[in-house]
Design a protein that fits this description.
Belongs to the glycosyl hydrolase 31 family. There is one protein chain. Helices cover 19% and strands 30% of the residues. By secondary structure, it is α+β, with helices and mostly antiparallel strands. The strands form 10 sheets. Strands 4-5-6-7-21-18-17-15 form an 8-stranded antiparallel beta sheet. A 6-stranded antiparallel beta sheet has the order 3-13-14-20-19-16, with no helix packed on it. The chain has a 6-stranded parallel beta sheet with strand order 27-24-23-22-31-30. The chain is globular. It starts with a strand and ends with a strand.
């Protein structure tokens, strides 16, 4: 939200008060509080009839410093609040230090400095004493607008050349500088400034992050009002934000996700190919069986089959009952599908249509959100007369999950938790939550409710969602997908931008609708999207009004789907290692180039390529003719599909057929290559090959088990013309390939490979 009219004036009707000078300071061992006047005090009379802004400075966890600015402190607290499972003030190691007029608060590698004698301001310093950012004049304020609303405002300085990323899954330009961003959930597709997943966290290219600890609407102006500042504001009496230390982007994400929650580890089977009925298409068991048969006949392994909305009767979403005219024997159908090795996913949402029998039941039990006058809140958008489940009520959560439990008993494995963005504010919640704060936060309790049910019923490590909406902390309940995109190259690029932004907002796993959702893709779009989708953390074929089975787009599409599905299965020992890293550290599976190469300035704006795990560079092709331009960082990289080597730093211009795209292996990498290309959750040590790229003196590679723990460790050393590999934890045969020379070795324990001086 903008408050000023250019640099000198305020917008009409806006009145602002800025922290100007410190009138009192209280310092404790691990925190301090400053009381800032909003005007210069020249005489005692200047202290009358004027506000103070209270500024509390503290550390919620190691390497994070919080600032809370308050105008009037008497506002009754109303939830919800972000849970922050990593909140640990006692373990932050925070300490204060005073030197003359200067007061410092240090936590880990981060220091906040304030000078009581100078103009109002706060400076954040890294471990080397370098200024990361700061609050300058007019950077701490409150303002009232013509409608009487009260806003708390903060501004953090942008340095020359500094880029800002994140703020959720945003499909606008990847670098957020110059953008106005409202953290407010909306069902806006992928072609607008609206977002399904709004996260009040951004990451700076200077090696720090900023988290605004407010679950309601947060308005960001990223160099778009005051061009040298990131401004954020809330309609409230208090504003709390945290500066998160690096110095690397990975360390920022590690600290941020430790605070807000690390992602659960999705089960290995979820990394295989998902196929859906699509949304508005006509389907029954015969259709479903024909799809499954068609995939098998064409030798395309399938891991999950998903039933979208119309598994239920029209006008009755959700009643969680199969349409009996279309699916007269759901238990038998699911059993037949599961006999073929498939997992089953079902579409759900948190809305109850008036025609559903659950509407009257939920209303009578008090499980539906109500208006202030006691009426059930309803509208006709999406479903006629639909209401909203009140997940703030424990009884309502149990009621809702009880309906889902019946589906799990039938053989369902997971749920697509669609929607959760269209949440009204003219309502009363069971637990008394503030409706404005609950608008964004609803997605969290919706997804958490379903995820925890799956963990309880299926066991730890077996829960997975396909969720659309999220707020801060939502990364704990993977997987999230990119919502409704068009079937075009433009939308394919939009989707990737959204995924990269989400990954820099703390989310470890992300997917998208292969081929696009809206409309029917041109075969070229579909084939290019197949390669991109199967080189994402999770891969799903899904559409709106048309099927997404590959043969609908020609035999070449079938070949492309087969090739990249088999490739992904071979990569599973590597990919699941990256997944385990995301679970342990918060570093995402799909990584913007900035994460792996923060010291390379060229990587800071790249939004059409990414690293899949630490060692694979992927550049999707966004053209029909196969023209692709991408950047290769320093070193000699190897095309995984062709074996060609490429030396960087350099920009590359290449042409690829539909069965290819740039997939480059990082110099010095060792890829654990699975022997089973039929399924994602096989025995990764059976037929394992270690593919060695580069000439590093010594390195270690691990292969995970299905729980994400280390199943095997391999230590590699080079001595002259010999590469020696030693296995630990296992006594099973494996193979080693030196990709530079093509020489191989195999055996158990220690394996040597002659590399002929390569």
């Amino acid at each position: 939200m903008k408050f000023t009219d250019g640099f000198w004036l305020m917008r009409e009707g806006v009145r602002a008060s800025y922290a100007t000078e410190i009138r009192d300071l209280r310092v404790d061992a691990d925190r301090f509080t400053a009381y800032a006047a909003v005007k210069r005090v020249a005489a005692r009379g200047d202290t009358l009839n004027t506000p103070l802004i209270t500024v509390d400075c503290f550390s919620p966890a190691e390497g994070i410093i919080g600032v809370r600015t308050t105008h009037h402190a008497g506002k009754a607290p109303r939830g919800p609040d972000f849970a922050l499972p990593g909140l640990d003030p006692a373990g932050s190691g925070a300490r204060t230090r005073q030197d003359g007029s200067s007061t410092e608060l240090t936590s880990g590698p981060l220091t906040l400095r304030m000078d009581a004698d100078g103009p109002w301001g706060l400076t954040f310093l890294d471990a080397e004493g370098r200024r990361l950012t700061g609050i300058d004049a007019k950077g701490t304020a409150f303002a009232t607008t013509p409608d009487g609303a009260h806003h708390m405002i903060a501004q953090l300085a942008l340095d020359v050349g500094e880029n800002v990323y994140g703020l959720g899954e945003r499909f606008t330009p990847y670098v957020k500088n110059g953008q106005s961003v409202d953290i407010w959930q909306a069902d806006g597709g992928t072609s607008s400034e609206l977002a399904y997943k709004n996260i009040p966290f951004y990451l700076s290219s200077r090696g720090y992050g900023v988290f605004v600890n407010h679950p309601g609407k947060v308005s960001f102006e990223v160099g778009s009002e005051s061009v040298g500042q990131v401004q954020f504001s809330v309609e409230d009496q208090s504003l709390e934000y945290y500066i998160v230390a690096g110095p690397t982007p990975k360390e920022v994400l590690a600290r941020y996700t430790a605070l807000t929650g690390r992602p659960a580890l999705p089960p290995a089977w979820s990394f295989g190919l998902w196929l859906t009925t699509s949304f508005c298409t006509s389907y029954d068991e015969e259709t479903v069986t024909s799809f499954v048969d068609g995939m098998a006949e064409r030798d395309i392994p399938l891991s999950v089959f998903h039933f979208d909305c119309f598994w239920m009767r029209e006008y009755q979403w959700s009643d969680f009952l199969w349409d009996p005219d279309v699916f007269p024997d759901p238990e038998g159908m699911l059993a037949r599908l599961k006999e073929r090795g498939l997992r089953i996913s079902m579409w759900i949402n948190p809305y109850i249509a008036q025609k559903s029998a659950l509407f009257a039941e939920g209303a009578a039990l008090g499980h539906l959100v109500r208006r202030p006058n006691g009426d059930v809140w309803q509208w006709d958008l999406w479903q006629p007369g639909m209401a909203l489940v009140d997940f703030t009520s424990p009884a309502a959560r149990e009621w809702y999950t009880g309906k889902l439990r019946l589906l799990l008993d039938q053989g369902v494995d997971c749920f697509k938790t669609d929607f959760g963005e269209r949440v009204p504010t003219d309502v009363v919640w069971h637990d008394g939550s503030d409706p404005e704060r609950m608008h964004n936060y609803y997605a969290q309790i919706y997804n958490r409710t379903v995820f925890e049910l799956l963990e309880k019923e299926r066991g730890h490590g077996e829960a997975v969602l396909f969720a659309r909406s999220a707020t801060a902390g939502g990364q704990q309940f993977p997987v999230h997908w990119g919502g409704d995109c068009f079937a075009s190259f433009t939308a394919m690029a939009e989707s990737l931008r959204g995924g990269l932004s989400l990954s820099l907002s703390g989310f470890g796993f992300w997917s998208h609708d292969i081929g696009g959702f809206e409309g029917t893709p041109d075969p070229a779009v579909f084939k290019r999207w197949l390669a991109f989708g199967l080189l994402s953390s999770h891969s799903r074929l899904h559409g709106n009004v048309s099927y997404r089975v590959p043969w609908e787009f020609g035999e070449e599409a079938v070949d492309v789907a087969r090739k990249f599905t088999l490739l992904k299965h071979r990569l599973m020992p590597y990919l699941y290692g990256a997944a385990a890293t995301a679970h342990r550290t918060g570093i995402p599976v799909m990584r913007p180039m900035l994460l792996e190469f923060p010291d390379d300035p060229t990587t800071r704006t790249l939004d059409r390529q990414y690293m899949l795990g630490p060692d694979l560079l992927v550049a999707p092709v966004f053209t029909e003719d196969g023209q692709v331009e991408y950047y290769v960082p320093e070193g000699t990289w190897t095309h995984l599909l062709t074996g060609e080597t490429v030396t960087g730093p350099a920009w590359r211009h290449e042409t690829h057929g539909f069965d290819s795209l740039p997939v480059l292996v990082r110099p010095g990498a060792v890829l654990p290559w699975g022997g089973d290309d039929r399924r994602p959750d096989g025995d990764w040590l059976d037929g394992l090959t270690l593919r060695v790229f580069g000439e590093g003196d010594a390195t270690t590679v691990t292969v995970p088990d299905h729980a994400g723990a280390t199943a095997a460790t391999f230590r590699l050393t080079r001595d002259g013309d010999t590469l020696t590999v030693t296995s630990e934890r296992i006594d099973r045969p494996y193979r080693v390939v030196d990709e530079a020379t093509g020489t191989t070795g195999e055996g158990r324990g220690t394996v040597t490979v002659p590399v002929r001086g390569a």
